[in-house]
Amino acid sequence: MTFRQTSQFALSLSLALGACTNGNSSSPAETPTVVNTAEKSESKGVGPVTDIDVGSLDQGLVAKGKGIFESRCVACHKLNEKYVGPSLKGVTQRREAEWIMNMILNPSEMLQKDPVAKQLLAENLTQMANTSTTQDEARAILEYLRTIE
Ligand code: HEC
User: Is 135 exposed, middle or buried (0-12, 13-18, 19+ CB in 10 A)?
Assistant: First the structure.
C-alpha cells in the first residue's frame, strides 16, 4: 500500500465507523430487530450455496423443478396464497437466489441463524421441513420459482 492508499483506507474506515455509530444512536436493547420479510432482502443465507449465476431462463430446468416442487413442496406451499408456509409467488423478487437454495437445502440452520428466515418462522409458527433435496434439484426448483411472478 502506498501512503496515499493507506490514508484513503484510514479515511474510509473512519467514515464506516462513523456511519456505524450513527446507525446505533438508539440502544439495541430498546429496538428489537424486526425484519420486513415482504421486502427484497440482501441475505444470501446460511448453507452450501454462496454464489450462483442464474443466467437466462432454462426451460428444461423449469420443467424438472416443477416436478420436484409438486412432489415435495405443495404439502406446505401454494403459489398464490399462504398455506402452512408462505405463498411462493414472486419469491425470487424478494430473496436472493442463494438464499432460496439455502432455505431449501439447509432449513433448520437457516431458521436458527438467518434473520429473514427467523422472522418467517415467527410469522408462520411451523418449521419448514428438510426435504432431502440435492443441490441440483434445488437449482431446478429455483428455476421453476423464477417463472412464478
Ligand atoms: C412442512 C412444511 C414445508 C415443506 C414440506 C416445505 N416448506 Fe418451505 N416453508 C415452510 C414454512 C413454514 C416456511 C416459513 C419459515 C418457517 O416458518 O419455517 C417456509 C419457507 C420457505 C421459503 C421462503 C419463503 C419466503 O417468503 O421467503 C421458500 C423459498 C420455501 N419455503 C421453499 C420450499 C420448497 C422449494 C420446498 C420443497 C422442496 C419447501 N419449501 C417445502 C414450510 C414447508
Answer: middle
- Residues in the ligand 1 pocket, defined by CB under 6 Å: 69, 72-73, 75-77, 84-86, 88, 91, 95, 100, 103-104, 111, 120-121, 124, 126-129, 131, 133, 141
pLDDT in tens, 86-133: 999 999 999 999 999 999 999 999 999 999 999 999 999 999 999 999
Q: How far is CA 74 from CA 17, 19, 24, 56, 122, in A?
A: 46, 44, 42, 26, 21
Q: How far is CA 100 from CA 5, 18, 80, in A?
A: 38, 33, 18
| Ligand 1 nearest-atom number relative to CA 68 | 38
